[in-house]
Structures are given as structure tokens and as C-alpha cells.
Amino acid sequence: MLIAYPLVFAALLFCVGIYGVLSRRNAVVVLMSVELMLASVTVNLVTFNQLVAERSDVLLTGQVFALFVLAVGAAEVGVALAIILLLYRNRASVNIDDADLMKY
Amino acid sequence: MSVADAFMLVIAVLGGSAALLVVTSRNVVHAALYLVIALLAVAGTFLLLGAEFLAWAQVLVYVGAVVVLILFGLMLTRAPIGPMAQSNELGKALPVGVSGALFLVLVVLILRSFGNTTFTPRVVTAANLGELLYVDWAFPFMVLGFLLTVSLIGAVVIARQDEGEGPEPGLDFDTEQLPEVPSETDATPSPHVQHTAEVPAGREGGGA
């Protein structure tokens, strides 16, 4: 398999995630974009792990790292949604431009 | 072009277009559902790369749990579910410029470095990964479990509604949209009295 395919796919996911973080104002959509970026990172980790493992029969450390990224991403979603809920309760809005209490 | 290459192309096109729809869709619920397709495409990529345990973990954790959590978040925040106007200070050009330029740079670099590199993915079973995880990575794995516990408790603590907490007084609010706070003083005490009166009678009957 050509290794460029998964790498370009991961790059596409990452750039789409950056576009979402920069352009959307809804906090939940921003969170989804961050999830896309995390997924692209795990794709990269697994791809390079397979490449390196084929060349020099090393351990599967890349996949262990990908698993850790998966778990940390799940924890991040839980805490982030709690924060968004709190923001909504105090400001009645999930627009991230409204969360400007510490801006200046 | 091998079969794996063809599958990878199909998955990449599907996942990439679903990801684009996630960030461009005006309807937030649709965006969450497109996120399912994008994450399933990532799981399919894992399968093609031979990482079968990671693929199923991705399906279980992300498609099963995270997206449901996001949908619950949308429901609880009563976010503008319909089409919403995106007030945007950054404008349209900056996000497109930054992400497009980064994508171009990444693609050029990938093709220059790995343009012709091929590899045959080695299938990594759950047994391989589990042995590694519980022997070499046992301590980090436990720390990870601890982190998950801490984040769970933290999320509950953050989202709990404290006494007297609510909207800031300065903000003009549509009070209809706020979640209702159940106040204990309003509750009529009569159901409680009835309930407590019934319980001992039931216990006596059960004991006899």
C-alpha cells in the first residue's frame, strides 16, 4: 500500500479541523473540529508505526500512543462539554465570542 | 493499484468530504452526524493499516460514546439547532487561507518524502497490543485509567449547579430559554409525608 494515501487523508482531516476551529463560533462545532484533528493525529501515528515496524521489527509503540490519544480525547470531550454547559448556564449562549470575561 | 489502495482512496474521499461537511454544515445536529461518518472512515483506515484493535476501539469510543455525548450536549445547551448565523470576527479569508496553505505544504512535503514509499501492513491483533499494554506499558495504562476517572469526576463537579448560581444579573436574558432550577421550597410536602407513612407499614407486612 502506498503510504501517501493515509498521510494525505490525515493531513486533510487536520486542515479541515483547523478551518473549523478558526471559522465556526459554536463551541460544540469547535469541539467537533478538535476531535477531527485528534483523529488525524492517530492516523499518522498508526501509519508511521506500521512503516517503521516493517523496516526494523520494533515494538508497536505507535499504536499504544494512538490508543492513549483516543482515551485522552474521550476524557477531553467530557470535560469540554461540562464547561460548555456551564458557559451556557451563565451566559445563555454557546457562542465562543461571548466567553470574553478574561479577555483584557 | 492494489485492492487496499482502492479501498483507501474510497475511504479517504468519503471521510474527507464528511469532515468538510462537519465544518461547513449550518445545522449543528447534521454536523454531529457527519462526524460519525468521518470517524468511521478513520476506523476504516485503521483496519486497512492492520490495526484491528484500534479500529474497534475507535468505533466504540468515538462513534459510540463521544458523538452521543456531543448530541447530549447539543440537547442540554438547547443550541440553535436550526441554521445559525455565524458572526465571525476573523472573516472567511483567514481560515480558508491558513488551512488551505497548510494542506498544500503538507501534501507537497508528504509527496516529496514518501511519494513512492510502499509498505505491507502487518496485522496487529488485540492479543499483540494487549500484551504490550499490560506488560511494558502497565504503569502509563494505569495512569490513563486514573486520568479518565479524574476527568469524569471533574466533569460532574463542573457541570453541577451550585446553590445561587445562575445567569449574571447584568445580562439581559430570555428567561424562557433557561433550564429550570427545581427549588425545594416550592415542592409541596404532602407526597413526602404520605410516602414516609407508607414505608413502615410495607416493611412490617414484608417482615411478617
Describe the fold and architecture.
The complex is a heterodimer of chains A (104) and B (208). With 104 residues, chain A is an all-alpha fold. Chain A is 78% helix and 0% strand. Helix content of chain B is 68%, strand content 0%. Mean pLDDT of chain B is 78; it is low at 182-208. At the A-B interface, helix 1, helix 2 and helix 3 of A face helix 1, helix 2, helix 3, helix 4 and helix 5 of B.
N-to-C SSE string of chain A, H for helix and E for strand: HHH
What share of the residues of chain A does DSSP label as strand, in percent?
Answer: under 5%
Rg of chain A: 17 Å
Terminal-residue CA separation of chain A: 52 Å
Q: How would a textbook summarize the main sheet of chain B? A: none
Let me know the average pLDDT of chain A: 88
Query: Which regions of chain B are unreliable across 5 or more consecutive residues at pLDDT < 50?
Result: 182-208
Number of DSSP helical runs of chain A: 3
Largest sheet of chain A: none
Task: Fill in the keyword field for this structure.
heterodimer; A: 104 residues; mainly alpha; 3 helices; B: 208 residues; 7 helices; disordered C terminus
Offer a concise description of the structure.
The complex is a heterodimer of chains A (104) and B (208). Chain A is 78% helix and 0% strand.
Compile the SSE list and pairings:
The complex is a heterodimer of chains A (104) and B (208).
Chain A: H1 4-23, H2 27-56, H3 61-91
Chain B: H1 3-24, H2 28-48, H3 52-77, H4 93-114, H5 126-135, H6 138-159, H7 190-207
Helix pairs in contact in B: 1-2, 2-3
